[in-house]
Amino acid sequence: MSSSEFIKEAAQNKTGRNIGKRSIWLNGKNTKGKREFIKPQFQKYVAKDFSRLLKENASNIDITLKN
To answer: With contact defined as beta carbons under 8 Å apart, do 23 and 34 qualify?
Structure first.
């Protein structure tokens, strides 16, 4: 998950000592079976390699250099 994707998906803490910081829960927990699972809305970020992030970073670098 890239930084921009994290900011889009995460919630910003409104209270407590971590006010203003962002957090995200990528997993859920089946209390009956006592097993954790990936939440369906975050399934798109599961990857076996980091090629998607490398491609995104390369395009961000190109945009920065053009400006």
So the answer is: no
